[in-house]
């Protein structure tokens, strides 16, 4: 049975955008026409539909579409695309992660070489080989770290499925600070933001929603009064689809009540009264951070600060997983370990007294 391979291909007249739910939409645009193609890029159905709209046959030259050999890097990625772990990700994240991996697959093993990383046997993939993939992003440190992140995930899944003995990406370091990611807000920075933006502003409502729900950008732009019931706010995490229900904090309830800019469908709306996109909200919120003299702060950093504060206040790993919609212990343990170290250091300091 032929395994369908999903690829990102640049074709004439094909354009893409992302809707407010994070779903990637593909269109054929030509001579003023814009027709949506619902079939997945790279599938037989997609190419058939594209050929119909273009009025001719389609020639696609892509190394990713060549014959699939078992136990190669390409083969592992195809298995990963069909896994439950990958399908649990939201459409936008699937699209982004697939694009990163397929760019790695299409890389030649050496400049000008015909052999591709796609055809590397799994047993021959080493940390050194993956560092080459990372370093080919040059001074684009964020893109390099995104490669490391995607490679770690797919090879970790390969180990779990017993396709491999070890994860070769585990020892490939981030180069742009990716191990820590977005800056986590301090209490002083939260207070500085609140001093700059009055309690009845959209900026303060956004901060309260981020702080007291632990929502990510793709979550917070979808929240509205329809998510409130019986003193709680309930929603499904956009990235993992995990259902979350949290008591509405007094501070959040107050921010909702005093805000004059709440939309009909969502709490947060643009200057035109429309719901934000995740990217649009992120850019808008960063502008509010800049106004407060906090150019290094971001929406995602508020979520990190909320997780750290919950852990410092004694939340367990499983409680953090429930609050923030994480699917495994790794992220929760990151925060609980940090909190335990802080408490341990505090207790140890008392032992140093004379």
Which labels suit this protein?
mainly alpha; disordered N terminus; globular; three-stranded antiparallel β-sheet; 354 residues; 8% strand; hpI Integrase, Chain A
Give a written overview of the molecule.
With 354 residues, the chain is mainly α. It folds into two domains: 14-160, no CATH class; 187-345, Intergrase catalytic core (hpI Integrase, Chain A, Orthogonal Bundle). It has 14 helices and six strands. It has a three-stranded antiparallel sheet. Helix 2 runs antiparallel to helix 4 (91-105), helix 5 (127-135) packs antiparallel against helix 6 and helix 13 (317-324) crosses helix 14. The radius of gyration is 23 Å and the shape is globular.
Quaternary status? single chain
N-to-C span: 74 Å
Number of domains: 2
Instruction: Give the strand content.
Output: 5-15%
List the helices and strands and how they pair.
Layout: E1 14-18, E2 24-30, E3 33-37, H1 44-54, H2 73-81, H3 84-87, H4 91-105, H5 127-135, H6 141-160, H7 187-196, H8 202-213, H9 217-220, E4 228-229, E5 232-236, E6 243-247, H10 250-258, H11 278-291, H12 299-312, H13 317-324, H14 329-350
Helix pairs in contact: 2-4, 4-6, 5-6, 8-10, 8-12, 12-14, 13-14
